[in-house]
């Protein structure tokens, strides 16, 4: 018997409250439009009875599909529950890129959050097993156990920001990443040209493929310039919050005997927290310590404003999302071809958070 889905099921899939789902389905003004859109799309694709029986005049939210049919072409977008996709930013842009590209090509997009437990146990959600989409886009999901479980269903899938390897040169799926190594190499090289010799790196390199590549680009720039990488200035080990929170960064930096003259950060969120920490210690950026980031992220509303334009690298989340969907379309037609890794170019933004090494 086909399962009858409830608002609680939808809330669990989207990692939001049942109240949010109810308000979104009733077009409540307190709910952001992009949240309404995801909720209504999910309800429609699950065949949520109350939603399907609603009169057209009761549904004012624009959705990406036109009708719910048995033969509707669908893909699924899966992302870790620890990522707030409803906030503006990189991952939200990726979601919109996938959604707009899928709609343009006549596909509906399903959406589901995955918990850490889902990923560890390789538990594929009902969004996939019950609705059977033609393909899947995985966003930032790097647990191989889940990838193996998904591959056993023989549904084509594309991974954004990572890749899976079983053996040498044997991948489990196509991957789409932003270019990271060379851009970080260039950001680090700019610091070296400004006479910085003692440079640190902050980023949990186990967090994602991009962070590891940025770490590699950093090390390559330092060693190519003839200097040694000072590991005592670097925070790269696995960390509960991936150095995305100020207290975590502060506790680690407080234990350093001395600070370097510059830091290269794996993303802008880390860089913003680092600058807040430095300013709290009475240090000026860039006069005392230079800082670079990556991703060209906006400061979050709960952060103290930082009147600086970060030196960073910009990559379009919309472009990555669109390219991931295009790769999935290509895979539908080339199931026998080797898996591919696609890289979307980044752009350096000089900013004003770096300067000559103090004392030079």
Explain what you see.
It contains 13 helices and 13 strands. With 360 residues, it is an alpha/beta fold. It has a 6-stranded parallel β-sheet. The protein starts with 6 loop residues before the first helix and ends in an 11-residue tail after the last strand.
List the helices and strands and how they pair.
Layout: H1 7-14, H2 18-25, H3 33-46, H4 49-52, E1 74-80, H5 90-104, E2 108-114, H6 116-121, H7 126-129, E3 135-139, H8 144-151, E4 157-160, E5 165-167, E6 170-171, E7 174-178, H9 181-193, E8 199-202, H10 209-224, H11 246-254, E9 262-265, H12 268-280, E10 290-292, E11 312-314, H13 317-333, E12 341-344, E13 347-349
Parallel strand pairs: 1-2, 1-3, 3-4, 4-7, 7-12, 8-9, 9-10
Antiparallel strand pairs: 5-6, 11-13
Helix pairs in contact: 1-2, 1-3, 2-3, 5-13, 9-10
| Helicity range | 25-40%
Please give the largest β-sheet. 6 strands, parallel
Order of strands across the widest beta sheet?
Answer: 2-1-3-4-7-12
Question: How many domain regions?
Answer: 2
Our count of helices gives 13
- The CATH architecture of the largest domain can be given as 3-Layer(aba) Sandwich
Q: Could you name the ranges where pLDDT drops below 50 across 5 or more consecutive residues? A: 52-70
Number of strands: 13
Q: What is the compact description of this entry?
A:
By secondary structure, this protein is of the alpha/beta class. It is built from 13 helices and 13 strands. It has helices spanning 7-14, 18-25, 33-46, 49-52, 90-104, 116-121, 126-129, 144-151, 181-193, 209-224, 246-254, 268-280, 317-333, and strands at residues 74-80, 108-114, 135-139, 157-160, 165-167, 170-171, 174-178, 199-202, 262-265, 290-292, 312-314, 341-344, 347-349.
């Amino acid at each position: 018997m086909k399962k009858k889905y409830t608002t609680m099921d939808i809330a669990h899939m989207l990692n939001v409250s049942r109240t949010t789902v109810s308000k979104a389905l009733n077009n409540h003004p307190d709910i952001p439009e992009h949240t309404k859109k995801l909720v209504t799309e999910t309800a429609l694709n699950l065949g949520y009875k109350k939603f399907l029986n609603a009169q057209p005049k009761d549904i004012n939210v624009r959705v990406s599909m036109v009708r719910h049919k048995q033969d509707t072409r669908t893909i699924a977008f899966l992302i870790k529950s620890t990522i707030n996709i409803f906030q503006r930013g990189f991952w939200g842009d990726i979601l919109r890129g996938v959604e707009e590209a899928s709609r343009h090509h006549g596909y509906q997009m399903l959406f589901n959050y995955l918990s850490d437990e889902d990923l560890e146990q390789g538990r594929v959600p009902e969004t996939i097993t019950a609705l059977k989409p033609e393909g899947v886009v995985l966003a930032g999901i790097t647990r191989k156990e889940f990838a193996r479980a998904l591959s056993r269903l023989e549904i084509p899938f594309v991974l954004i920001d990572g890749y899976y390897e079983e053996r040498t040169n044997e991948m489990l799926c196509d991957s789409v990443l932003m270019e990271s190594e060379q851009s970080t190499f260039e950001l680090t090289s700019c610091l070296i040209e400004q006479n910085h010799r003692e440079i640190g790196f902050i980023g949990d390199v186990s967090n994602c493929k991009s962070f590891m590549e940025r770490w590699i680009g950093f090390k390559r720039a330092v060693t190519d310039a003839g200097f040694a990488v000072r590991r005592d200035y670097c925070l790269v080990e696995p960390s509960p919050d991936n150095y995305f929170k100020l207290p975590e960064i502060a506790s680690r930096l407080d234990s350093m005997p001395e600070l370097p003259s510059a830091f290269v950060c794996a993303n802008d969120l880390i860089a913003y927290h680092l600058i807040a920490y430095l300013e709290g210690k009475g240090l000026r950026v860039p006069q005392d310590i230079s800082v670079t980031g990556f991703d060209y992220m906006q400061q979050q509303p709960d952060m103290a404003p930082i009147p600086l334009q970060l030196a960073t690298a910009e990559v379009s989340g919309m472009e990555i999302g669109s390219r991931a969907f295009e790769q999935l379309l290509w895979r539908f037609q080339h199931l026998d071809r080797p898996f591919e890794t696609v890289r979307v170019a980044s752009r350096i933004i000089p900013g004003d958070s770096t300067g000559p090494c103090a004392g030079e």
